[in-house]
Amino acid sequence: MATDPQVDLIFSHFIPRYIATGVDANDINRLVAAIDDWSEWCREWTKVGATHEALASEAAAANRPVTAAQAYVRAAICYHYGKHLFGAHPVEYRAAHDAMMRCYRAAAKYDSRMEYLEIPYGPIKLRAWLRKPRTDGKPPVAIILPGLDACKEELHEWSNAFLERGLATVTLDGPGQGEVAFDAAISPNWGKVIGAVIDFLQPRTDVDGKTVGIVGQSLGAIYAPLAAAGEPRLKACVANCGPFNFGAVLPQMPAVSQDLFRIRARLDTIEQGHKYAGELSLTNGRAEKIKCPLLVVFGAGDRIIPATEGEKLAKAAGGKVDFVVYEEGNHVCFNIPYKFRPLTADWMAEKLNG
């Protein structure tokens, strides 16, 4: 056990997530042994990221592109987790963020089906990665949204599940997320956000921008239904372990998560954050505006967002709803990725392919 209880708390919540999204379990063991105080968190994760980045560089120099690409993605994920809850330390946070982007961009150089997008949205640009399956024609598109402390690069493994089923994916940083957190605060206006993405996709000739679904995890799983409520062009929606009313959920979350929400919302106090979290809600008739097919997924063992939030969404949505609860599942069901990833990808492929 670490001297600092916050270190143990975060590991207890998120080790399944780290492994499911690409961190080697042996690296996790080494990190658990190395980190004794929260102040060491980003530094130790950065060391692991640097190890994998060095391996990637060696493979690239030896003209081993598959090895290089895989190692660059692992490095990016490790750098990401060094900063994912470290927003109160902006200098270290930014350094880890830049390292993550450097490595993920390096991995993308080895994949011609992968494209970095800058999508106009008012005075700023949304940032995304478009990935296309190995199929001919114009594939439908699944837009995948990260949560509060995640980012589009973390969604790489989940994206793979959709690609394998013939869908293109757009992993997106919206307001308050990933790269866009430096430009815009958290916002409840996700119908407009996703409307801008669809507007950007529709003129393209390599994907079917008229057949688009939305997928979200954690806080992204309230952004996704908010988008479906406000953007009628969406054909289907998946919400994986998201709140129905974040104002009721945020005060129960770990203190470091509450503070990160305050930072991403660009507010001065936790009390302001708690109040603003109520703007991220599907109450007051918003859920009833969701008319497209909706899949709500939850883990009964979720200690971050209770499964009752999913029940509320399933009951309130205005269209057809499939509600799946895995009794053994934790937050986002990261402890059973072999269940939630095939389910969400199969369901979306079936809905978008008619």
Q: Overview of this structure, please?
A:
The chain has 354 residues and is an alpha/beta fold. The protein has two domains: 5-108, acylaminoacyl peptidase (de novo design (two linked rop proteins)); 114-352, Alpha/Beta hydrolase fold, catalytic domain (Rossmann fold), CATH 3.40.50. It is 46% helix and 15% strand. α8 links the parallel β5 (212-217) and β6. α3 packs antiparallel against α4 (65-83). The mean pLDDT is 97.
Q: How many domain modules?
A: 2
Main beta sheet strand tally, sense and closure: 8 strands, mixed
Strand content: 5-15%
The CATH architecture of the largest domain can be given as: 3-Layer(aba) Sandwich
**Poorly predicted runs of 5 or more residues:** none
In terms of topology, how is this protein built?
Blueprint: H1 5-20, H2 25-34, H3 41-61, H4 65-83, H5 90-108, E1 114-121, E2 124-131, E3 141-145, H6 156-163, E4 168-173, H7 190-201, E5 212-217, H8 220-230, E6 234-240, H9 246-249, H10 255-264, H11 270-277, E7 294-299, H12 308-316, E8 321-326, H13 337-352
Parallel strand pairs: 3-4, 3-5, 5-6, 6-7, 7-8
Antiparallel strand pairs: 1-2, 2-4
Helix pairs in contact: 3-4, 3-5, 4-5, 7-8, 10-11
